[in-house]
Automatic annotation (TrEMBL):
Residues 156-264 form the Lactate/malate dehydrogenase C-terminal domain. It comes from Aegilops tauschii subsp. strangulata (Goatgrass). It catalyses: (S)-malate + NAD(+) = oxaloacetate + NADH + H(+). Keywords: Membrane, NAD, Oxidoreductase, Transmembrane, Transmembrane helix, Tricarboxylic acid cycle. This is Malate dehydrogenase.
Length: 315
């Protein structure tokens, strides 16, 4: 039997956390044969709620779940973790831009980075979900210099999945048959969802999305705007930001990173908002091969940071 992997979820008492921890405990993130120990961190204010989540995890009797650490202590939360999913932070509410929450997250990410640096397992892989995700990942990298840059990423897989979802709805095809969308840019409304290389599996082979949709005006206009604005649309409808889709996308991101993917393109957001495109199909050597690709691709796109800085109004 495999040794359990320790997975940290910060902000675990929040709405994404509540959707995410059962997915991890069911093997959605690391595989159906991978036992896990969940480390859940939240702040004092949410300590009771966090206890409740732990009780529910126990009650759900997940066979893969070998232990639960529920704590408000950052060091205890980070000790020995192999995967860290950073969800905790100040969420964007209706009418707020991501930059509005930026300042609130700086001190949080400094402290958590230092704890990960000192106490996480070697080769810990970090996924930052909390917005502004790129900036939080950058802060984390700055304060955890011994964690390799290639191990720090942030979540844009949700945007990627949203693009696949829109194409599947439009064409009336299974979402699993739509492949190789790319999201360029930042996880924000300025992103560019690109389906120029995307294909759909049909009974007569793979067909380009553009050929099947036959409506460039829609693909170049409404489709892009819908994906860009989807987060805001969810907030408008639910009065809360995306949670189950964010949790599921976080699982997809880590699963493809750790276990590999059959897709030619997938969209982990590497530091500074780079979109990494893997141009080869998955094979067993691919994971190792990818390790060599990362530093190369991580040649940093400082301009994205500059844009972020420039778009932040000075106080
Ligand atoms: P919630 O407010 O429901 O949960 C956040 C949790 O974080 C709360 O339980 C809170 O107590 C906890 N928290 C706050 N400060 C903390 C700290 N210092 N240490 C540990 N925990 C702390 O927000 P939720 O809807 O779960 O969203 C979480 C984050 O995900 C937000 O920043 C949100 O903007 C971001 N999102 C990112 C997405 C992406 O694609 N990258 C999409 C979904 C989501 O909007």
């Amino acid at each position: 039997a495999k040794e359990p992997m320790r997975v940290l979820v910060t902000g675990a008492a929040g709405q994404i956390g509540y959707a995410l921890v059962p997915m991890i405990a069911r093997g959605v993130m690391l595989g159906a044969d991978q036992p896990v120990i969940l480390h859940m961190l939240d702040i004092e204010f949410a300590a009771e709620a966090l206890k409740g989540v732990k009780m529910e995890l126990i009650d759900a009797a997940f066979p893969l779940l070998k232990g639960v650490v529920a704590t408000t202590d950052v060091v205890e939360a980070c000790t020995g973790v192999n995967v860290a999913v950073m969800v905790g932070g100040f969420p964007r509410k209706e009418g707020m831009e991501r930059k509005d929450v930026m300042t609130k997250n700086v001190s949080i990410y400094k402290a958590q980075a230092s704890a990960l640096e000192a106490h996480a397992a070697p080769n810990c892989k970090v996924l930052v979900v909390a917005n502004p995700a790129n900036t939080n990942a950058l802060i984390l990298k700055e304060f955890a210099p011994s964690i390799p840059e290639k191990n720090i990423s942030c979540l844009t897989r949700l945007d990627h999945n949203r693009a696949l979802g829109q194409i599947s709805e439009r064409l009336g095809v299974q979402v699993s048959d739509v492949k190789n969308a790319i999201i360029w840019g930042n996880h924000s409304s300025s992103q560019y969802p690109d389906v120029n290389h995307a294909t759909v599996k049909t009974s007569s082979g793979e067909k380009p999305v553009r050929e099947l949709v036959q409506d460039d005006e829609w693909l170049n206009g409404e489709f892009i705007a819908t994906v860009q604005q989807r987060g805001a649309a969810i907030i408008k409808a639910r009065k809360l930001s995306s949670a189950l889709s964010a949790a599921s996308s976080a699982c997809d991101h880590i699963r493809d990173w750790v276990l590999g993917t059959a897709e030619v393109c997938f969209s982990p957001c590497v530091l500074f908002g780079i979109w990494l495109i893997y141009m080869q199909p998955f094979n067993t050597e691919f994971v190792d091969h990818r390790e060599h690709l990362f530093p190369w691709v991580c040649t940093l796109m400082v301009h994205t940071v500059c844009l972020l800085v420039l778009s932040t109004p000075s106080q």
